[in-house]
Amino acid sequence: MPIIEVNLLEGRSPEDKERLIQALTDAAVTSIAAPRESVRIILREMPPGHFAVGGQSFAAKAAKAVSGDG
Known about the structure:
By secondary structure, this protein is an alpha+beta fold.
């Protein structure tokens, strides 16, 4: 039973997440011959303030872009 975990920033539409779930499921079925009904997908969404790269959260980066400082 494959379990695929994905961490995403908040903001994607339900339709986008459904497409991702379908694509990941299809990939598991195709690549490792997993039975479709055995594939588990866990999506974890996080606010932009909870994810950072290079010492700056995505929320801070977005705020700078809006203010013209970034």
